[in-house]
Amino acid sequence: MAKEPPPPTSTTGPAPALLAMEDGTVYRGIGFGAINDGAGEIVFNTAITGYQEVLTDPSYRGQIVTMTAPEIGNVGVNPVDFESSRPWCAGFVVRELSPVVSNWRASGGLDALLRQHGVAGISGIDTRAVTRRIRLSGAQRAVITRNVADPAGAVERARKHPSRCPRRGAGLGRGGAGARRGARRDPVSSVTPAHSLAPLWPRRGGQDLQGRQWLCGIACGASCATSWSGSSCW
Questions:
Q1: Are strands 222-227 and 141-145 parallel, antiparallel or unpaired?
Q2: Per the domain annotation, does 46 fall within a domain?
């Protein structure tokens, strides 16, 4: 009986990679994007479209994003749909990376975008299993690496990575929550503009000129203003 061929090692072909989580779970897949390791809190996103907007959303700064949609990258990337100047996430996990870009607006592919900005990616992962583990175990850190010969070392690097979580389950990793609280980082300051946005209307003391209290929030590129008397979006 013919032997199973060894995993590819050529830099021009598919590159084996690992996704290692701090609870000891290891998933094997194929690396894409940057060849460097990516480490951070692992999260998931259930959007069917909009992976380019997810990558360039500053709220994902320093996180490894898992996309639950089965195929990612089929429409490529374009300069119009960026949410900010560049991708902010530390890593990108997909079930299948589309080998073909098919969209008239595309100016490049997802693989090239991640390589350009130093973001590690991994495909061939059961993203449903990853999502379920995150939901059951809570927030935890992970590492994407192409050093497939040392999965235990990748798990240990995940456990040692500084946490951005305000509270962590004491059962994950070594040392529990209290041992790592001093290592948390502030991801907000690195993506905050030097100057805040100008007000959309004259205001004083948290009220507009009609005396209504208001709250302004910006999320996913949409701005909403809410008052006690009602809400409106623009």
A1: unpaired
A2: yes
Overall number of domains in the chain = 2
**CATH number of the domain within which 97 lies:** 3.50.30.20
Residue 53 dihedral angles phi and psi, to the nearest 5°: -65, -35
Structure token digits, residue 232: 């409106």
Q: Strand, coil or helix: what is 97?
A: strand
Do 148 and 43 reside in the same domain of the chain?
Answer: yes
Three-state secondary-structure class, residue 215: strand
Tell me, what amino acid is at 230? G
Task: Indicate the burial class of 60 (C-beta count within 10 angstroms; 0-12, 13-18, 19 or more).
Answer: buried
Residue 205: left (phi > 0), alpha (psi -120 to 50), or beta? left
Same domain, 143 and 63: yes
Give the three-class secondary structure for 78: coil
> Looking at residue 88, what DSSP letter applies?
-
Q: Is residue 185 part of a domain?
A: no
Of the three residues 148, 166, 184, the one that is the final residue of a domain is 166
Task: Give the model confidence (pLDDT) of 182-233 as tens digits.
Answer: 445 555 566 655 554 444 444 445 554 454 444 444 444 443 333 333 333 3
231 closest CA partner among 219, 214, 218, 207: 214
DSSP β-bridge partners for residue 20: 26, 143
Closest CA relative to residue 173, chosen from 127, 138, 126 = 138
pTM for the whole structure: 0.69
CA atoms within 13 A of residue 22's CA, in its CB half-sphere: 29
In a domain, 180, yes or no: no
